[in-house]
Amino acid sequence: MSSNHLQRVLDPQEQDAFDQAGEPQADPEDEQNALLRMESAESEQAAAAAAEALHLKQAAQGKVRIGSAVRASVLANAAEPAYAQFVRDELDSVTTENELKWDAVEPAQGTFTYGAADTIVDFGQANQLDVRGHTLVWHNALPDWVKAYDVPGEANRLALNAILEQHIRTVVGHYAGRVKVWDVVNEPLADDGTRRSNSMWQRRLGDDYIANSFRWAHEADPGAKLYLNEYGIEMDSAKARSLYELVRGLRALGVPIDGVGFQTHQMLGAERLSGLSNVMRQFADLGLDVAITELDVRIPGVPATGEQLAQQATAFATAVKACLSVPRCVSITTWGFTDKYSWMTNNPDPKYAGWGEATLLDASYVKKPAYNAMLATLATTERPSSVNADLVGAWRLDDWSATTASDASGLDHAATVTGGLGAEGRTPSGSAFRGDGASTGAETASAVVATNASYTVSAWVRLDSKSADQVIVSQDGSTVSAFTLGYGKTKDRWVFSIPVADSTGASVQSVESKSAPVVGEWAHLTAVWNNGWGRMQIYVNGSWNNTFPAASENRGATWASAGRLRIGRSMSGKAFSGAISDVRVYRHAASAGESAGYADPSVGRWQLNGSLADASWFFRDGSVRNDAAATWTVGQGNTTVGALRVSASDYIDIRGTQLLYTERSYTVSALVKLTAAGQSNQIILVQDGNGQYAFVLKYRASDSKWAFGLPASSANSSTYLEIASTSVAQTNWVNLTAVWDGVTRLPKLYVDGILEATGTATTSWPSSPTGSMHLGTSSSSKFDGALDRVQVFQRALTAAEVGALA
How confident is residue 54, by pLDDT bands cut at 50, 70 and 90? Predict the structure, then answer.
């Protein structure tokens, strides 16, 4: 079997052309490349020195504040000095775990008991630690006297509103100048993103209680930073989007909210962290700080194995990296630091039975791999800067805002957008920018890349019209664009152009694609200027297409530009008609291999090596239904946790909006190992349709064959038109790839890269817009075995591409 994901292979004719043009080589005298190498060496030296740091806050080097929730009773316990010593040595901040919740600080009306909270605040001040107050308004931890007001009626509403105001003003006022940050409102949303119906504050006071709470807290201590804190928002979801709209509305009303806290409680094996930095950036672009406020990673079936502890360490490191990649992520707080005093230890809630060991230290204060991983990540991961960054601009263009395209590079090159955001993207779960060919576009406030040095520009695009020359990406000079990547009508080709000088009428150097674009079809373009080689190159869908000038000619010319970067148009007014997604700018000349990597066509990729994380650009992490634990087994390469173990009790979902447009071309692929052939059908992969499944990939018990089926009608069909393998299913590892070709209108099934079946079905029906993809299960049939390297593509892969997967 081959590599983890699709690698494009050059055909012989293409390879010959590439060889004749010559592999671009960096010029030793290229000053920009030399500078980057020097900066990289300096960065490595700094990282090596930082790795010697003894403590977390030393490793962080001021890049981010490191904190933990703490308990006053243990902090003050002279018989357990290791607890307080860890806090002193390792942390920049402390959070009150329970001491400022309502039932602890105001157990009777008007009676405030600050003793326990004072212990933490005083300790913080004595040791130069910031203090985070948690929490002023929450639907839980309410004393009975407050709950007594959970009744309808206007008189009761007024009384409860006054009680809430008095509580906030009194508690915040008591700690004015001493508590730096407050979690003002905690968990106001239900899991589906609606306002929480089991909150008495929501039921009795309505939506206004949130804005009022922030106003009262600000008036009580204008110097404190005020946060809204929430769980389950670490990935793009209905809940995260609802919170975004809530916070955006608060900002529009002038409510004094300073930040959003991402709790980030995670379950090992079902962590939802791959899209964390992207979600954080959405809130940061509203002008807010963001923070990880309650990080832990609970392990199923404790005591933990060595493999589980290693996986936990990876999860902690992933969360830290996500924060460091977002400039406005200001702090990382764990929810406790030792398993001896974790909220998971002896938790009476049945849903947490068997889960535990969620923190950085074990119950004896021994540092776990998670601590070491967090320390190393803090020490060696730099905040993106203009000095150390190679990726100098990255706009996903699937933003939640209608007017701002966030810069995922971390260099704050956000682009102001005129129209176009929120259009249909490459899949149903990812939107894109759509240009109208006239008035739409996006632009940064300043230059992004030095155009007199090597650089690379890449983008996914879908052309809607060929009626005029069009521009996808450009950067302004003083008079003309320093470069443009776009479509040229005259020759009907993709074109990368650089004028020889910053003046009107200057001759233009251009390199064109070999073939014409297809209207309505997504393509990936990469444009490369290699300053050391003096050549321009263009790649289409990861394939080298052309180089200019030819190897026998003099080098091309370029020049410095200081103007803004534009997406969907140029400074001359040429605009793009169609969709644009995932624009990236690098300050180096990409190699052929890198260009192929940028053009990765997968729209979902689950490596299943101990995690349900999606390694593709789309961040569709999986989960086990009912918060159950995922089970792992030996993978194809004999790695201990190298594959997902699926049995009759498991429900693995890729939730959210539909993953694939199943009425269009698509491909699904998986490594599969049956436990036993059995007497019943076994589902490998399905996506929800309309009262049916849009497709099924399965083991078919009637003849012990692999099968790919499509429903016979658009909705509520119990009949599937199936094609089956010629080979009989065995219990060894096998790669299955199912293809629906929307052009030929035929389904195909490959086994280990070999085409074994082509069907006669002529229609693949749409999926449910709100449906999910499911691994190893359907409503009536389960898989018994192991799954690995599940991948999905929103196009029909060629036979060669399928062979590369196998």
Answer: confident
Buried b (16+ CB within 10 A) or exposed e, 357-371: bbbbbbeebeebbbb
Q: How far apart are CA 256 and CA 266, in angstroms?
A: 30
Beta bridge partners of 605: 791
φ, ψ of residue 106 in degrees (nearest 5): -140, 70
Active site residue 219: no
Strand order in the sheet with 773-775: 623-624, 652-654, 773-775, 682-688, 693-700, 705-711, 720-728
Q: Which residue has the tokens 């096998």?
A: 734
Name the residue with tokens 């180096």.
Answer: 588
Structure-model confidence comparison of residues 482 and 42, the more confident one: 482
Longest dimension (CA), the chain: 88
Q: Say whether 633 sits in a helix, a strand or coil.
A: strand
- Report how far residue 263's alpha carbon sits from residue 190's, in angstroms, rounded to the nearest whole number: 15
Q: What is the pLDDT of residues 575-629, one digit of tens each?
A: 999 999 999 999 999 999 999 999 999 999 999 999 999 999 999 999 988 888 8
294 is a catalytic site residue: yes
The sign of the dihedral angle between the CA atoms of 557, 563, 566, 571 is: negative
Percentages helix, strand, coil for the chain (3-state, rounded to 5) are 25, 30, 45
Residue pair 295/332 in contact by the 8 Å Cβ criterion: yes
Question: Rounded to 10 degrees, what is the CA torsion of 283, 288, 289, 290?
Answer: -20
pLDDT average, residue stretch 287-302? 97
Q: How many CB atoms lie within 10 A of CB 550?
A: 12
Token reading at 23: 């592999």
- Strand 785-793 and strand 643-646: the pairing is antiparallel
DSSP state letters, 75-117: HT-TT-HHHHHHHHHH-SEEEESSTTSHHHH-SBTTB---HHH
Instruction: Catalytic residue, from 90, 187, 271, 801: name it.
Output: 187
Q: What one-character DSSP code corresponds to residue 380? A: H
Residue type, 7: Q
Contacts of 455 (CB under 8 A, 6+ apart): 449, 528, 529, 585, 586, 587, 588, 589
Q: Write phi, then psi, for 86 (nearest 5 degrees).
A: -60, -45
In the chain, the percentage of residues whose pLDDT exceeds 90 is: 84
99, 294, 357, 722: which is the annotated catalytic residue?
294
Contact 786, 633 (CB under 8 A): yes
Nearest CA-CA partner of 384 in 691, 39, 736, 68: 39
User: In which element (H, E) is residue 278 found?
Assistant: helix 276-284
pLDDT at 453: 97
The upper half-sphere exposure of residue 164, i.e. CA atoms within 13 Å in the direction of its Cβ, equals: 30
**Distance between CA atoms of 322 and 328, rounded to whole angstroms?**
11
Which amino acid is present at 565? L
| Confidence check: pLDDT of 49 > 70 | no
Question: Does the pLDDT at position 787 exceed 60?
Answer: yes
DSSP-assigned beta bridge partners for residue 481: 476
Residue 324 CA to residue 63 CA, distance in Å, equals 8
State CA 760 to chain mean position distance.
39
Distance CA 515, CA 266 (A): 47
pLDDT in tens, 247-269: 999 999 999 999 999 999 999 99
Q: Which residue has the tokens 């009306």?
A: 109
Distance of CA 7 to the CA centre of its chain: 23
Q: Six-digit token pair at 116? A: 């326990």
What pLDDT is recorded for position 268? 95
Q: Is 729 helix (H, G, I), strand (E, B) or coil?
A: coil
Could you tell me which of 799, 779, 680 has the C-alpha nearest to residue 739?
Answer: 799
User: What one-letter code names the amino acid at 5?
Assistant: H
Q: Is the separation of the CB atoms in 659 and 667 below 8 Å?
A: no
Distance CA 757, CA 630 (A): 33
Quick count: other Cβ atoms within 10 Å of Cβ 217?
25
Phi, psi of 665 (to 5 degrees): -60, 140
